[in-house]
Sequence to fold (168 residues):
Amino acid sequence: MKLSKQFTDALESGNILQIKLMLKNSLILDSSGKMFDEMLNETIKKQPGFLEDHDGEVFKAEDAWNESYFNEQMVKVVGNFSKERIQLLRQMTKKLFGSNTRSVDRTDSPATEPVSNRKVMGGAIAALGVAGLGCKAFMEEVPAAISIISVAAIGVGIYMTVSKGGGK
Fold:
């Protein structure tokens, strides 16, 4: 599988936040995990210290997993990109969204696969969150509230994109 230009650009520029966001989102987009594995392997080659030590959080048991907990962990992985949290997210993705995720096929088109308004809105909200976090790159002082709201927006956007609720 060929890595996207956006991802390789993020690797070349050393944009760790963008790399983390793209990696975690690939867990949702590709249930096989092949895309994630390839992206992570390339990241570790270019950024050897990329993976972080686990922060010590004790994860919930599998029978307590739900979409809300998944969303919480998707936000936390940005701040603690550890092997343990990645493994948790892989397992949760398979359990909670197994048939909802699919391997990315570049031949898919909007004509053959309609996109729900909920997914479009979720993507837009997540993009706004990423833009909010991007403010840090251009401003010396960004209020903590903007960072918190941005991370929350990313989480809400991801939740809306992957959740089973709603309709077209």
